[in-house]
Automatic annotation (TrEMBL):
Residues 306-360 form the DEAD/DEAH-box helicase domain. Keywords: ATP-binding, Helicase, Hydrolase, Nucleotide-binding, RNA-binding. Residues 74-85, 104-134, 142-155, 162-188 have a biased composition (Acidic residues). This is ATP-dependent RNA helicase. RNA helicase. The keyword Transmembrane does not apply. One of its GO terms (molecular function) is RNA binding. It comes from Cymbomonas tetramitiformis.
Length: 372
């Protein structure tokens, strides 16, 4: 059954309406929403005014933000100035994009309205739709303003937090510097006290009438310092100046302690080759089976009886059974061999009774033994 003329006309009218209702852009889609268009011009003017106000507000806000950041930095910080310029540019770009979008919406609205006027029906609904769309867009702008205000508040809060953190860091650094200064002062005070105490000790040692003891102590210090220099000459350069001053105060040193004489097994010497030994002593040694002198005996003889070593102190350090008893008994016997007086001429002091019993066989002609 063929469609009637009325049905064809209705179908064409629907197609035209569908063509008009087909969305080609976002603005067109908004314009097709249902509503009345009586308030088209008034909201359009309000949009213009609000657009200008909004632009001015954004610019003022950006400029105030830039000034606030500049004051917070207390100086001409180039980076913050750049950030302020970027914010101003961003706000201007946002306003321009909004304006372009709204202009596009207005142009589309005008085009649709003309078409609708030509069609002669549905004008009021479309115009009202445009108003609704504008109000929605303004609502969006309002939302944007609110969101920007929230962002600004967040930025301000963030700036305050950053400022507090910087203050905290500065205060902590200041405390750390104060702590370091306190530690250095304490160290200097301790060093000063030690130096004062050492100087007081040195002064008391020189003024209490114990000059020999003080001199020995100074000698020991100088010997220790000298030994340390010999052992590690480079290390003495890094010592504190106080130890260098000790070296200047040191007195004379004893050669027998500072320069020991080292002896070895090769230093054994036949009895008949011992220079200056009394022949009677040599014969007595051979009678007891002692054909050679041990190294400690040879060394002590050289330092006491041979040469110009008489009259000074000697210190012998040798292992057990190395002949130390005969080592000091030979110089005594050598000295007594030329003495005709019967009186106390030699004294041997031993720490234990057992050691006394060990010494008597080596010195059988000892007249008296005193036990304390
Ligand atoms: N030149 C020598 N030749 C042979 N024998 C010796 C000689 N000198 C010492 N002796 C013997 O060596 C032994 C040890 O000697 P002596 O006791 O003097 O050693 P010492 O170093 O004094 O020992 P200690 O450290 O225990 O006192 C003794 O029996 C002694 O008779």
């Amino acid at each position: 059954m063929a469609p009637s003329l009325l049905e064809k006309l209705n179908a064409k009218a629907k197609e035209r309406e569908l063509q008009k209702a087909e969305p080609t852009s976002k603005a067109t889609k908004v314009l097709t929403a249902p509503g009345t268009g009586h308030a088209h011009l008034a909201p359009y003017r309000n949009v213009k005014e609000e657009r200008e106000n909004k632009k001015q507000r954004l610019q003022n806000r950006a400029s105030s933000k830039t000034e606030a950041k500049g004051e917070a930095s207390d100086g001409n910080d180039d980076e913050e100035d750049d950030e302020g310029e970027l914010l101003v540019r961003a706000s201007e770009d946002l306003v321009e994009s909004r304006e372009q979008q709204e202009r596009a919406e207005d142009e589309d609205e005008d085009g649709e309205g003309d078409d609708d006027d030509d069609d002669g029906g549905g004008d009021d609904d479309d115009e009202h739709d445009n108003d609704v769309g504008d109000s929605d867009s303004l609502g969006d702008v309002g939302d944007t303003d609110e969101s920007e205000e929230e962002e600004d508040e967040g930025d301000d809060a963030h700036n305050e937090e950053v400022a507090e953190e910087e203050n905290d860091v500065d205060s902590e650094q200041g405390e750390a510097v104060d702590d370091d200064d306190d530690d250095e002062e304490e160290e200097q005070a301790t060093i000063g006290k030690e130096q004062d105490r050492e100087n007081a000790e040195d002064d008391s040692g020189g003024s209490d009438g114990c000059g020999d003891v003080a001199g020995d102590a100074q000698e020991d210090r100088s010997q220790t310092t000298h030994a340390a220099e010999i052992a590690a000459p480079n290390a003495s350069n890094s010592e504190q100046p106080s130890k260098v001053t000790k070296k200047k105060k040191a007195g004379p040193t004893l050669n027998w302690m500072r320069v020991p004489i080292a002896l070895g097994p090769e230093d054994r010497l036949p009895v008949e080759e011992v220079a200056g030994l009394d022949p009677r002593i040599a014969r007595a040694l051979k009678r007891q089976g002692m054909e050679t002198l041990f190294p400690a005996q040879v060394g002590l003889w050289r330092e006491s009886c041979a040469g110009a070593a008489e009259g000074r102190d000697l210190c012998v350090c040798a292992p057990t059974g190395s002949g130390k008893t005969l080592a000091y008994a030979l110089p005594i016997a050598q000295g007594l061999s030329k003495c005709i007086f019967r009186r106390l001429r030699a004294l041997v002091v031993l720490p234990t009774h057992d050691l006394v019993l060990q010494v008597i066989p080596t010195m059988p002609h000892t007249q008296r033994i005193f036990v304390l």
